[in-house]
Amino acid sequence: MKKLFKLSLVALISLLFAGEMKAQLNESFTDATFPPTGWTSATYQGAGGNWLRSTTSFRTTPACAISNFQNPNGENILRTLQFTPITNDSLIFWFRQSFGTVYADTMKIMVSTTDTAKASFTTILTLADGVNYPPSGTYGRFAVSLGAYSGTPIYVAFTQRW
C-alpha cells in the first residue's frame, strides 16, 4: 500500500523583530528542482519510497513535498541546507496524511549541529499516526522552537518512518 505524507511551507524559520515576523528560510517548493538547492533527501530501509515534489493536494500554491512509501519499515529523510537560528526562532510547517487508516508510523523533526549524517541528528519533535497527526486529508500547523540552537549553524531533517 502506498502511503503519502505532505509537507507544505516546510522550514519556515520565523524571526521576530519588533513584533514583525520575517522568514530566515522559507521553502514552498516553487522551483521544480527537488530537493531544493542545498537540501538533500535519502531513503533508508524499505523500498519504493522517497521525498518528492508534488503539485497536487498542496496547502500553498504551487507545490508541497511528499514522503511516499510502498513497503513497510521504510524511512525517508529530507534535510534542509545549513542555517543559523537566532533567539526566538521557530520551525513552522504544515503536515497532513492522505488517508485514514492508522499505520503507527512517525514523522520526526530532527536537528544536527555537525553534518547531514543520519547518526548526527537529534529528535526535537515526534508526530505519531493515531496519536497527534491531524485528521486525514487535513493540514495541521506545527511549530517547534529552535531557541536552544541560537547562534549555532544547524541542519533540520524531516524524517518519516513507517
Low-confidence stretches: 5-21
What best-fitting shape do the alpha-carbon axes yield?
Answer: globular
Oligomer: single chain
CATH architecture: Sandwich
Strand content: over 45%
Q: Give the overall average pLDDT.
A: 81
The helix-and-strand class reads: mainly beta
Number of separate strands = 11
Helix content: under 10%
Largest sheet: 6 strands, antiparallel
Features:
single chain; 162 residues; mainly beta; 11 strands; globular
Please outline the helices and strands.
Elements: E1 3-17, E2 20-25, E3 40-44, E4 50-54, E5 64-69, E6 75-79, E7 90-97, E8 106-112, E9 122-128, E10 140-145, E11 155-161
Antiparallel strand pairs: 1-2, 1-5, 1-7, 3-6, 4-5, 6-11, 7-10, 8-9, 8-11
Folded structure, characterized:
It is a single chain. The model is unreliable at 5-21 (pLDDT under 50). The radius of gyration is 15 Å and the shape is globular. The protein has a single domain (3-161), classed as Jelly Rolls, CATH 2.60.120. It has 162 residues and is mostly beta strands. Helix content is 0%, strand content 48%. It has strands at residues 3-17, 20-25, 40-44, 50-54, 64-69, 75-79, 90-97, 106-112, 122-128, 140-145, 155-161. The strands form two sheets. Strands 1, 2, 4, 5, 7 and 10 form a six-stranded antiparallel beta sheet that branches.
